[in-house]
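Hi,

Apologies if this is the wrong queue. I'm a grad student, and the batch job for Molybdenum ABC transporter permease from Candidatus Pedobacter colombiensis produced an output file that my downstream script rejects. I'm not sure whether the problem is my script or the file. Here is the sequence I used:
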Amino acid sequence: MGATIVIGIIAVLLGITIRYFIGRRKFNRRTITGLQGFSSYERAVGITFIEKVFNLIGLLLILGGLFFLAVAWYNHSNIKPRQEQVKQP
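Support response: The file is valid. Your script probably expects a header line. Output copied below for reference.
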C-alpha cells in the first residue's frame, strides 16, 4: 500500500471522527426543548466559533483524504504493463 493511500485513509477517518465528536457534543448540550444550553453568552459565542472552526478542519480533512485516494486510484489505474523491446539480431 502506498503512502498516498495511507495518508488518504487517515485523513478521511480523522475528519469523520472530528465531525462526529463535535456533533455529539452539540447533541448532548440540547435541552428537552431542543435548544442548546450555555452558562453565559461569551461561552456560547466561544464554543460555537471553535466548533465551526473544527467542523471546517474536519471537512477539509475529509475532502483532502478523498483527493489523496482519488490520486492513488488514478495512478494505479494508469499503470501500463511494461513491454520489453526485443532486439533483432
